[in-house]
Amino acid sequence: MTLSEQIEEYILQHIEPEGDYLHRLWRDTNIHLLAGRMASGHLQGRLLKMLVAMIRPQRILEVGTFSGYSAICMAEGLEEGGHLYTFEINDELEDFTRPWIENSSVADKITFIIGDALTEAPRLGMMFDMTFIDSDKRHYVAIYEMALQLTRPGGFIIADNTLWDGHVVDDSYHHDAQTHGIDSFNDHVAKDQRVDTVILPLRDGLTLIRKRS
Predict the structure, then answer these.
(1) What residue ranges in 120-203 does DSSP mark as E strands?
(2) What is the DSSP letter of 198?
(3) How far is the C-alpha of 161 from the C-alpha of 207, rounded, in Å?
(4) Is the dihedral of CA 179, 181, 182, 183 positive or negative?
(5) DSSP of 100-133, one letter per residue?
(6) Is the dihedral of CA 93, 76, 18, 50 positive or negative?
(7) Structure pTM?
(8) pLDDT digits (tens, 9 = 90+) for 107-134
């Protein structure tokens, strides 16, 4: 085991437990879905729950549901009356994901929608206090701009995978559309005077963005 793996294991042993339901979801995600590592997992899941508890949003928008792990984690942090709307563009995931969401202890706090958030989220006709972006990296800039329009002043946008396995600093990957999308997003946000931003080197990179008042 490498030093970084030892440190990660130490961290996981000293934070809030993942819980049996989420552990089973994580296991089934990795068994039954391609690229199962895309699910947030124990550490990031507990961080998302903590961020929700700190921000105290009434409405959360998630772009990219995948197996539902992150949606459930964020919903766990919601206060009474809070609600999360999560969009997944890949309809082939619905048969796997919907039962996991609907059988969770926070099912009443989650609306799971199959569709393209870029067009469908604005049609909800509401503003959000927090958005979590974890979808097609090629469209991160467009998704960010949509989310920013739907985020209240002082609200937060959180974007996942913004270091992209370190490919953003490896020139040999910059021909790749996903890497280019992430790099373009990072440049775009860094120059955006409408927000304050910080990148956390957690897992694959997690960017916290606050919309200025």
Answers:
(1) 128-133, 151-160, 195-200
(2) E
(3) 8
(4) positive
(5) HHHTSTTGGGEEEEES-HHHHSGGG---EEEEEE
(6) positive
(7) 0.95
(8) 999 999 999 999 999 999 999 999 999 9
| d(C-alpha 72, C-alpha 45), whole Å | 9
How many CB atoms within 10 Å of residue 85? 21
CA 109/CA 76 separation, integer angstroms:
9
Backbone angles phi and psi of 15, in degrees to 5: -125, 175
Question: 169 or 56: whose pLDDT is higher?
Answer: 56
Residues 10, 29, 114, 95: is their CA dihedral positive or negative? negative
Q: Band of the pLDDT at 37, cuts 50, 70, 90?
A: confident
What is the SS3 assignment for 51? helix
